[in-house]
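Input (Outer membrane lipoprotein carrier protein LolA):
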Amino acid sequence: MVADASPKLPEISAQELLAKVQTAKVDGLSGTVHSSADLGLPALPGVTGGDSGSASGQLTEFLSGEHTARVAFAAPDKARVSVLDNMAERVLTTDGKSAWAYDSAKREAVKLQVPEHKSGKPEKLPQSYDPQAVAKQFLAAIDPSTKVDVSGTEKVAGRDAYKLRLTPKTDQTTVGSVTLAVDSKTYVPLQVTVLPRTGKDPAVEIGFTEVSFAVPAANTFTFTPPKGVEVTQPKAPTTRPDVPKSLPGKPDTAKKPDIKKPGTAANEPTVIGEGWSSVVMIKGVKLSGDGGPVDQFLAGAKSVEGSWGKGKIVTSKMVNALITDDGRVFAGLVTAQTLQDAAAKAPR
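Output:
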């Protein structure tokens, strides 16, 4: 994304701007979000960018390439995302009473009745297309190991914005810096740019190319399936599912102990460490051992061992992962050594 010329704005301290960002709230917005990712991940054998129908294809798609989405939000419980990729459209929308998921390529739609909204909190856009949600995850990592400064101003989506830069001081993370373009009127993050510790090109960039903070009309969130589309209506849950607070490998908004004990589910993620050095562990991962794509993928990975056991390290300029022989996966925006240190602390 290319920003416009730097506007002249009143001076503001990093502490003042940070406080305004953390308390920013709007009743609605709509616009176009563009995201790009180049995490340097090795290709998964047998999976191409167009294989979005498989889980591995969706993962590859999310972690690489460029994507565009039209988004809208209205408090307290209305949200819509229309993802435009490969001449196809995927829509996720809710008007507070019903929710739709539509895939034009498959000509399929799923409709759910939304359980009664009891929390009083607004719905959230899917985080991969919500610059504010992505920004909050990085803001949660701020601690004494983070340098925070206002590095200038810029125009994003035609709006004047301050540039709030977060620079980790620890060498345990692969993140070099995170810059938030903060709207000078609403203090909502308009764009997030993540630079790796090595290299000058952004590893991740997500932001608005156009945005309006007017509350969208109610009919923005309704959906009528096109003629001929197959509609299914699974049984709705009795309660609203909890929205994950963070993405794997990124800081959570809640203060965490050094090790968060897993729940009853065998594969429930466990977070080890805090802030920039946090690592996510998943247990009970079974490798096929049949020479399939995942086995081919790991065949080229470096073998490592330590007090935690044996396994293989998959490295990139941003995301690293340790896959142990006993079925555990450790991953995060951290160095390979940090992963092994986390494995040594982790419960079996």
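Helices lie at 14-22, 55-62, 131-139, 293-299, 336-345.
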